[in-house]
Amino acid sequence: MSAPFNFSAGPAMLPAEVMKQAQEEFLNWNNLGISVMEISHRDPAFIRLAEQAEQDLRELMAIPDNYQVLFMHGGGRGQFSAVPQNIAGPNATVDYLNCGIWSEFAIREAQKYVQHVNVVGAAEQTEQGKALAPRERWQLSDNAAYFHYCPNETVDGIALHDIPDVQAPIVADMSSNILSEPLDVSRFGIIYAGAQKNIGPSGFAITIVREDLLGHAQGNTSTIMDYTVQAKERSMYNTPNTFAWYLSALVFQWLKRQGGVAAMGEVNRAKAAKLYDFIDSSDFYRNPVHPNYRSRMNVPFLLADERLDGDFLKQAAQAGLIGLKGHRFVGGMRASIYNAMPLAGVEALVDFMREFERKA
Ligand code: PMP
């Protein structure tokens, strides 16, 4: 049986080439006769891997020298608490744009550590579909320690394609869109991402933090979540997730071979356009998001008759198209089309959707 196309939102598919390489060197990494999982993180061979991974990520994202790159524990949600603890005092005011479910979780977490969490605006229903409150209506604070938003909301498939124009340092949860297109990192105070979509295995996170934001952690911040400690210790304050770090390093090298984020951005645009164009051309399928706010990574869609959802998912799986069930909070379908999903996967999905509609 040929491998299915896996549209899972995360943990998501990884490039086949990367998985194959990991398999080939699983028992004998770097000619050491043992797995990369079985050596010390302080071993010079692992340190070389770790440093190369950072250098590759810096190159891929053109990360300026005044930013630290941290390899953190605890996935995306770990950063929901790490951010307020690290860069806002307990009496501070912080601004959050509520872009959807993941923003809401981030807001709730911030409320534990910071006294004034100001929600500046939220996702809303418009005649053309779900959108975000426009910038003119945001109720920004004068003195926010930071402004937090999620440029790609994985569940609703809502994206903010322009970097917000705000005074406070911008913190972005890029768990589901990091490395998917070129980005001006210098516009951000912090970028963080759980790894399990565009980077590698789950439970791991990458945090890119501007150096002037370091050194302000609240006194009771747990040490493994303290950016300043992790920066000083090169993300090895305690034993890091070495296998996740290794796989992420392979993904970064794969990305470089593909031509980096510029090339990925083009493919990702082509994939998203193909799927949205088809959905828009049909009365049988519908995407609930305003065209200006549509994600290029997560494409939710609904069938006109939801009683067919079960058949759709079953037949899709039989056709080798898996992971299409929408998030349990919103239902329907969702195709997650991160970097590792080739255009051929989206073409196969569109062909299947067309055929399913014809037969229904
Ligand atoms: N932020 C976003 C945008 C996400 O999509 C997710 C997970 N799907 C998270 C945060 C949480 O990540 P984790 O499960 O790694 O904590």
UniProtKB/TrEMBL annotation:
GO BP: any one term: L-serine biosynthetic process
GO molecular function, one term: pyridoxal phosphate binding
Binding-site residues, pyridoxal 5'-phosphate: 76-77, 102, 154, 173, 196, 238-239
Binding-site positions, L-glutamate: 42
Pfam families tied to this protein: Aminotran_5
Keyword annotations: Amino-acid biosynthesis, Aminotransferase, Cytoplasm, Pyridoxal phosphate, Pyridoxine biosynthesis, Serine biosynthesis, Transferase
Domain of life: Bacteria
Cofactor note text: Binds 1 pyridoxal phosphate per subunit.
Reaction catalysed by this enzyme: 4-(phosphooxy)-L-threonine + 2-oxoglutarate = (R)-3-hydroxy-2-oxo-4-phosphooxybutanoate + L-glutamate; O-phospho-L-serine + 2-oxoglutarate = 3-phosphooxypyruvate + L-glutamate
Aminotransferase class V domain residues: 5-349
Pathway as given in its UniProt record: Cofactor biosynthesis; pyridoxine 5'-phosphate biosynthesis; pyridoxine 5'-phosphate from D-erythrose 4-phosphate: step 3/5; Amino-acid biosynthesis; L-serine biosynthesis; L-serine from 3-phospho-D-glycerate: step 2/3
Keyword ATP-binding: no
Signal peptide: none
Entry-linked NCBIfam families: PRK05355.1 (NF003764), serC_1 (TIGR01364)
Protein's name according to its UniProt entry: Phosphoserine aminotransferase
Organism of origin: Pseudidiomarina donghaiensis
